[in-house]
Amino acid sequence: GENVEQHPSTLSVQEGDSAVIKCTYSDSASNYFPWYKQELGKGPQLIIDIRSNVGEKKDQRIAVTLNKTAKHFSLHITETQPEDSAVYFCAASIEYGGSQGNLIFGKGTKLSVKP
Amino acid sequence: SAVISQKPSRDICQRGTSLTIQCQVDSQVTMMFWYRQQPGQSLTLIATANQGSEATYESGFVIDKFPISRPNLTFSTLTVSNMSPEDSSIYLCSVAGLAGETYEQYFGPGTRLTVT
């Protein structure tokens, strides 16, 4: 079955710097890759996702890139702010015929942005 | 996206008792799921809640321990039965398949359970 590895487990950056979180997956059939942000005491929030028919997607300060050949995808946060501090989870699944297989999650990255 | 609410938001329970967690969505959804998240850990899928039929459980989770109901397209319950301290965790409801969307999956705020 699918396995998702996520690195690093913790990341500390200065406010204004960029942060990059990387994930690799094992099942080449996976074609849907969402990223979630979980703040302390809250449920995970979907912040961006990418499907395998595109290589990059941006939404303001966040972007996700996908390399299908290498089976890895990354989250990029630019101009980080203290409110970006949270745990970030990547995930992978297979979308097919209007349905979706189970999301397989990485172990998470705790991002700390220091003012 | 969808607005997902869970009740209770947290509880402290005695071992051997049972707790039922409710999940309500503000719009009809195709899929509803229940996850467990132990402190500082990732998310583990317990089961998919199927409307009008038995839930589909993942390996390591059984219906006797985690009975699930889904009477309609906006509501589901998860019961944690005969609790032990090892059941202390965050339980998360998740939904997917909103009308007009592709297959994004959203999470509720979670129920924080402590078993003493």
Set out the fold topology.
The complex is a heterodimer of chains A (115) and B (116).
Chain A: E1 4-7, E2 10-14, E3 19-25, E4 32-38, E5 45-51, E6 56-59, E7 62-67, E8 72-77, E9 86-92, E10 95-96, E11 99-100, E12 104-105, E13 109-114
Parallel strand pairs in A: 2-13
Antiparallel strand pairs in A: 1-3, 3-8, 4-5, 4-9, 6-7, 7-8, 9-12, 9-13, 10-11
Chain B: E1 4-7, E2 10-13, E3 19-25, E4 29-37, E5 44-49, E6 56-57, E7 68-72, E8 75-80, E9 89-98, E10 105-107, E11 111-115
Structure description:
- By secondary structure, chain A is an all-beta fold.
- Chain A contains no helices and 13 strands.
- Chain A has strands at residues 4-7, 10-14, 19-25, 32-38, 45-51, 56-59, 62-67, 72-77, 86-92, 95-96, 99-100, 104-105, 109-114.
- In chain A, strand 6 and strand 7 (62-67) form a beta hairpin.
- The relative contact order of chain A is 0.33.
- By secondary structure, chain B is an all-beta fold.
- Chain B has strands at 4-7, 10-13, 19-25, 29-37, 44-49, 56-57, 68-72, 75-80, 89-98, 105-107, 111-115.
- In chain B, strands 2, 4, 5, 6, 9, 10 and 11 form a seven-stranded mixed beta sheet that branches.
- In chain B, strand 5 and strand 6 form a beta hairpin.
- Chain B starts with a strand and ends with a strand.
- The model of chain B has no long low-confidence stretch (mean pLDDT 94).
- Chain A binds chain B through residues 32, 34, 36, 42-46, 49, 89, 95, 98-100, 102-103, 105-108, and chain B through 1, 4, 31, 41-43, 45, 48, 58, 92, 96, 102-110.
